[in-house]
Design a protein that fits this description.
The chain is of the alpha+beta class. It has helices spanning 54-69, 111-116, 120-123, 134-144, 146-150, 158-167, 174-177, 193-197, 219-224, 239-245, 299-307, 317-326, 367-387, 404-413, 428-437, 459-478, and strands at residues 10-15, 19-25, 31-38, 42-44, 49-51, 76-81, 86-90, 93-96, 154-157, 184-185, 190-191, 213-216, 232-234, 237-238, 255-258, 263-266, 281-285, 291-297, 328-331, 347-350, 394-397, 419-422, 451-453. Strands 1, 2, 3, 6, 12, 13 and 14 form a seven-stranded mixed sheet that branches. Strands 17-18-16-15-21-22-23 form a seven-stranded mixed sheet, with helices on both faces. It has a three-stranded antiparallel sheet with strand order 8-7-9.
């Protein structure tokens, strides 16, 4: 397929915590080709922390981009990535590798930063474990390597690091700054008091909108990939917020559930006063700057833990009914350090009893349905925390949107909401990144309508699921 066959195509780089994906998307929104690589973090022996595998991704991109394009010329490059990661730019590159947010070696080194998180109303950021508060990572660098920190020209969020890598132009963007970092005040639309007082705010690259063109492809990359000059690079966005951006115009009040490594529940227009920061609930910032009440748990990790090697495709409505009939349930949490029950250790029960062998006691054919039921119970709990039982439609994005048991359970647990699932061949993060590359063009949001209403669940199964959910919540509330 030659360049002339793909007018105004977009190259999307979508970096999740588990995998990175390159997708070439046509002007009509159809995905043309894609390639995926597993992410890998590595110990940095010189600095004593675990670092994101930036160099490995760069090598992958150098070979992967021309292999994917096969002679096609994209008009624009758009980046989305996971949050809780920041890069320090100095000279022509990184001053030091970015810290993996799952590294947990801070000790008491960031106590002063942690104290700033007490003002939840100001920055909407709860006190999270590991490096999930991105400001903790920056504070750690300032304290551990003050001389090196003084050489930093710009701090940039992770999506904007990759936009810089493509273009040579450094910028910062609000959805990346505002994702549980402690660096941004969503209500005020400015850097947090801590970021200003610590001198961090002035070290960030200039603010740009997620859809702004910040420059063109670096000449060296254009030569290496045999691309003409003029391929534009946009600022990019935090991945969950790229997914939300897909729906902001056509469904501005919808609650969006973005699933992947994380299950992120975002409720634009909900009351931030309902949030419980001790349950990993927070205020995110949409690409247009609006505050977005948010709750999340590490659903992809927990789902995989409960599957314990069983094929996720076994999560059918029939298997879900069998899980209920046999009395299986799972209580949080199966991913340490995140979600509303971060301090708890997950348990599997059968008829109120703990079987020997834990998840291994569950027949493999039923484990995926049990995992789906667990994720649905948690999702419904968080949706009601944010926005109550009634209200705007709920839109499901990502792998769990295609999971029949999860969709059936969630439909039963939220009967007074209209539930829609994405039937887009692209995941919401990549679709949102494509839309941001066309944000100011007519019809840029047409792909937001690739949604399908969930069919009502069988009456008997629905009643059984609601009864199970009530019992599940009593157990969860009892601790």
């Amino acid at each position: 397929m030659q360049a002339a066959d793909i007018p105004s195509s977009t190259l999307v780089l979508d970096i999740g915590k588990s995998n990175a994906k390159l997708v070439l998307i046509g002007a009509d929104g159809a995905p043309l080709r894609s390639v995926v690589v597993a992410n890998e973090s590595l110990p940095d022996a010189a600095r004593g922390y675990t670092a994101l595998g930036v160099e490995r991704l760069q090598h992958w991109l150098m070979a992967g981009v021309p292999d994917l394009l096969q002679g096609a010329v994209p008009a624009r490059i758009s980046v989305t990535s996971h949050g809780a990661a920041f890069c320090a730019l100095a000279g022509d590159g990184l001053a030091l590798p970015p810290i993996d947010y799952e590294w947990d070696g801070y000790g008491d080194a960031t106590a002063a930063f942690d104290a700033s998180l007490a003002n939840f109303a100001h920055h909407g950021t709860p006190r999270l474990g590991m490096g999930l508060n991105g400001g903790r990572q920056i504070d750690f660098v300032l304290r551990r390597w003050p001389a090196l920190a003084e050489t930093v020209q710009y701090w940039v969020p992770y999506p904007q690091y990759w936009s810089w890598w493509f273009s040579g132009q450094a910028c910062t963007e609000v959805s990346s700054l505002g994702c549980h970092t402690g660096l941004w005040s969503p209500a005020d639309g400015r850097y947090s008091d801590w970021a200003a007082a610590r001198g961090v705010a002035r070290r960030f690259a200039p603010l740009r909108r997620a859809w702004d063109v910040i420059g063109t492809l670096r000449p060296a990359l254009a030569r290496a990939w045999r691309l003409p000059p003029g391929v534009e690079v946009i600022a990019g966005a935090h991945d969950s917020n790229a997914c939300l951006a897909r729906h902001l115009r056509r469904h501005p009040d919808a609650t969006v559930v973005s699933t992947g490594t994380w299950c992120v529940v975002m409720a634009p227009g909900a009351d931030s006063a309902r949030l419980a920061p001790d349950r990993d609930e927070l205020v995110n910032v949409a690409v247009d700057g609006r505050p977005v009440p948010t709750a999340r748990f590490m659903g992809g990790r927990e789902f995989a833990a409960l599957c314990d090697g069983a094929d996720p495709a076994l999560a059918s409505a029939h298997a879900l009914a069998e899980v209920l009939r046999r009395g299986w349930t799972a209580l949080p949490s199966f991913a340490h350090g995140s979600g509303p029950f971060a301090a708890r250790t997950g348990r599997v029960l059968r008829d109120e009893q703990t079987p020997a062998g834990g998840i291994g006691a569950v027949p493999p054919a039923l484990r995926p349905a049990l995992a789906a039921l667990y994720c649905a119970n948690l999702t419904a709990l968080l949706v009601e925390d944010l926005a109550g039982r009634d209200g705007a439609p709920l839109i499901l994005e990502g792998p769990l949107a295609d999971n029949h048991a999860y969709a059936a359970a969630l439909s039963a647990l939220l009967p007074r909401r209209t539930l829609l699932r994405s039937v887009d061949p692209l995941e919401g993060t990549a679709r949102g990144a494509w839309m941001l590359a066309r944000w100011t063009q007519p019809g840029a949001d047409a792909q937001a309508e690739l949604l399908q209403a969930l069919a009502p669940v069988d009456a008997a199964l629905g009643e059984a699921l609601r009864a199970q959910a009530q019992a599940w919540r009593r157990r969860v509330d009892a601790g």
